[in-house]
């Protein structure tokens, strides 16, 4: 079985809801990172054998097979196929794992794993269920309700439940959120994201190069003033991920393709895991998926140099730290989704870009990425920087 190498890892800067990136049609936004991948590597675009595009809100401007539409809007030839996938927030992390599996099996040699989400233009919930008469319905079928009676599956409720289970206070969550903004602001000022960000030209001719959601002036006082999402709860918009517009792409190549096309590997895929667990508490699965991933890789958490754990809600990475005993100084060292934004289907490849470039910038070797996902799912990807 051949190895799978990451030869390019790029993302757009994040845009706030209704902000600078909202003027970009999501198809063109996705096409932009596909084009940048080709330009960044100098590879013949006709050599790309597949594009796997993660996207959660596959309706409206993101409907009708956004992966294929992105290819058609890009510089890639019509001969390059594509597929659009949805594993909720882990969609483009799954894109990476599917691409690596194709390469490692010898089925393909060059695959772009990508993701896109314009949460300004296709808001969360747009893909809600409808009846045969096109009236509002429910994705919870009678059979599903029989198995989980009276349960309204909710990520917000899951985040609150995790905070209660692990005894995190509102102050704990706000302190983590503040750290996210501080780290992201420091990383931006130091140019830590320069190697991964694809600039976007705006309607006024400005080039957008930095993540729009970072609050360099964030404080505990300001965070304490944000209302909780439920009475008596601890989750607020301040300690949860930001709605965000963005796209990302990772080029996965076989050893033969690396040699044939003169590519420079940035990292190799060391291990891949996906698990399913409790769909009610829902967002706790990265804890247990990490246990399995480390066991399968024959590694301990102390051997991992950097971790990217998606900051969907502050309670998730905090619970992950508590469960794994991981070093908090290695976690989300350049900030996370609370400060940088969480463009749903694009976040998996976005975090991989940050992880790979972060490892190389620090001269470190192993990185672990994991993400909580709707329905009680989690992906874990372990990479080795080269």
From TrEMBL:
GO MF term list: acetyl-CoA C-acyltransferase activity
Record: active site: 89, 342, 372
EC category: transferase
InterPro entries named among the record's database cross-references: Thiolase, Thiolase-like, Thiolase_C, Thiolase_CS, Thiolase_N
Domain Thiolase C-terminal: 263-384
Domain Thiolase N-terminal: start-end pairs: 5-255
UniProt keyword list: Acyltransferase, Plasmid, Transferase
Pfam families: Thiolase_C, Thiolase_N
EC number, UniProt record: 2.3.1.-
Homology family: Belongs to the thiolase-like superfamily. Thiolase family.
Name assigned to this protein: Acyltransferase
Lineage: Bacteria, Pseudomonadati, Pseudomonadota, Alphaproteobacteria, Rhodobacterales
Gene: fadA_6
